[in-house]
Design a protein that fits this description.
It is a single chain. It is built from eight helices and seven strands. With 254 residues, it is α/β, with parallel strands linked by helices. The protein is globular and about 65 Å long. The protein binds S-adenosylmethionine. S-adenosylmethionine binds next to helix 5. One of its GO terms (cellular component) is mitochondrial matrix.
Length: 254
């Protein structure tokens, strides 16, 4: 298909903007590094060189992670107006912001159905208009899950998302086991609370347990895909397992 004049201008502006901001941020050097550890200096340098950090600031997202969810949703359509969404490991709240926008949980689109977003994190974090926040709660505890169930009040969920990451101990094997356990905890809750056709997104760190987790998820969902959004840093082991079309439970053997 031939590109219209308008499309061509848009692409040109977009490319120009991307180049400018890349150059602009590549030039920025962190100041006041005195007294900071090497890892903190590296983190600051990386933040300044990262175009997603500035883009998030300009678009009022609380952190760059917003772009990971937007990218997955743009491609795989996991959220829609009217959906009930559970966001696990939600602080500081950028996935929640995206989920509120895309499910119309704040009711801003008058003609579209209004969704609802429930967000939980170990940390306390600022309210996101349109979402119900459970701050200072460990998702893996029965108390937290009971509170979520009560809030859902019998309604089923259309998308369960987990960007949860355990505090890394630095011992690879232990950290991988912890994140895999979190994924199973989310899967168990999703199976109990999801509507037919619901979606699931869980963050994983690539490791030997992932193929089994993927197979286990596949038992209950039509499609499972391992996804690495562009906004996810290339040097991190982070991936997402994205499952679509909750099938319910297979019939019990007779
Ligand atoms: C990468 S951050 C999430 C960023 C978030 N998706 C956003 O876009 O703002 C991971 C979060 O998982 C949370 N977390 C880790 N284990 C948790 C648990 N057991 N229960 C609740 N939250 C947990 C951490 O406190 C942390 O805030």
């Amino acid at each position: 298909m031939r590109k219209t004049e308008l499309q061509r201008s848009y692409l040109l502006i977009k490319r120009l903007f991307q180049t400018q901001s890349a150059v602009q941020y590549a030039k920025q050097q962190p100041r006041n590094l005195k007294g900071r550890s090497k890892s903190s200096q590296d983190w600051l340098t990386r933040q300044l060189a990262d175009p997603y950090v500035e883009k998030a600031r300009m678009m009022n997202y609380r952190c760059r992670s917003a772009f990971k969810l937007m990218e997955m949703d743009d491609k795989y359509k996991i959220l829609k107006p009217g959906d009930m969404v559970l966001d696990c490991g939600a602080a500081p709240g950028s996935w929640t912001q995206v989920a509120v926008e895309r499910t119309n949980a704040a009711g801003k689109q008058e003609r579209a159905p209004q969704g609802a977003v429930f967000s939980i994190d170990l940390l306390h974090f600022h309210a996101v208009p349109g979402a119900t926040i459970f701050g200072g709660m460990d998702f893996t505890t029965s108390l937290a899950q009971q509170r979520l169930r009560e809030s859902l009040a019998g309604r089923q969920v259309n998308c369960v998302m987990s960007d949860m990451a355990p505090n890394a101990t630095g011992v690879r094997m232990l950290d991988q086991e912890s994140i895999t356990n979190l994924c199973y905890e989310v899967l168990r809750f999703a199976l109990a609370m999801s509507a037919h056709g619901a979606n699931l997104v869980v963050k994983i760190w690539d490791n030997g347990d992932v193929p089994k987790l993927e197979r286990d998820i596949q038992t209950y969902y039509e499609k499972v895909k391992r996804v690495k959004p562009r906004a996810s840093r290339g040097d991190s082991a982070e991936h997402f397992l994205l499952a679509r079309g909750f099938k319910g439970f297979p019939p019990a053997p007779t």
